[in-house]
């Protein structure tokens, strides 16, 4: 079940995300301090894939997302979430998480991280799909992200959703490690100016769509 990170117990969520970051094998993982700063930033939207650690089944019913990006679950799950999803529920496991921010017109995916033990079962695709749909609800025109050039599985995942390579960012991760920037256009982006000519309401030549 995909849930909004803000509806989880903060301490438990920070701990779970920190563990996932520590399992990255490319030395780009966040420290616990960075995780806390990201998850509590007011302009960030983070989500998590939560499952039962014993058998991998959903905890509660499948999330049904509404226009606000929140979800509706069964009554037991709503009660549990209202009280905070805490580490006192030892069967809960975070299989992956993702997040993004936006300024109203453009957005950037800040992270998509799936536990190595739960890869290749659709967790990453589910998280990316949620973010794209949420971005569309907010009428965001373009989503961008950065990924290591040698992270072929991740690039293939993003390719499948329509992301396209835009540029190479030199030394983006430090220590000489570059990043590939990828972008997905969700709505036509108006560049230039829009005016009115006469009664026909034609757009001036100074406007173009990308």
Helical fraction equals 25-40%
Order of helices and strands: EHHEEEHEEHEHEEEE
The rough form would be described as globular
Q: By CATH's scheme, which homologous superfamily applies?
A: Gcn5-related N-acetyltransferase (GNAT)
Task: Give me the Rg, rounded.
Answer: 19 Å
Provide a descriptive summary of the structure in words:
Residues 34-187 form the N-acetyltransferase domain. With 210 residues, this protein is of the alpha+beta class. The chain has a single domain (2-209), classed as Aminopeptidase (3-Layer(aba) Sandwich). The protein has five helices and eleven strands; from the N terminus they run βααβββαββαβαββββ. It has helices at residues 10-22, 32-40, 75-82, 123-137, 152-160; strands at residues 2-4, 44-52, 64-65, 71-72, 92-102, 106-114, 142-147, 164-174, 177-185, 190-191, 208-209. The strands form three sheets. A seven-stranded mixed beta sheet has the order 1-2-5-6-7-9-8, sandwiched between helices. The radius of gyration is 19 Å and the shape is globular. The relative contact order is 0.13.
In short:
The chain has about 210 residues and is of the alpha+beta class.
Topology, pairings included?
Layout (H helix, E strand, L loop, with lengths): L1 E3 L5 H13 L9 H9 L3 E9 L11 E2 L5 E2 L2 H8 L9 E11 L3 E9 L8 H15 L4 E6 L4 H9 L3 E11 L2 E9 L4 E2 L16 E2 L1
Parallel strand pairs: 6-7
Antiparallel strand pairs: 1-2, 2-5, 3-4, 5-6, 7-9, 8-9, 10-11
Helix pairs in contact: 1-2
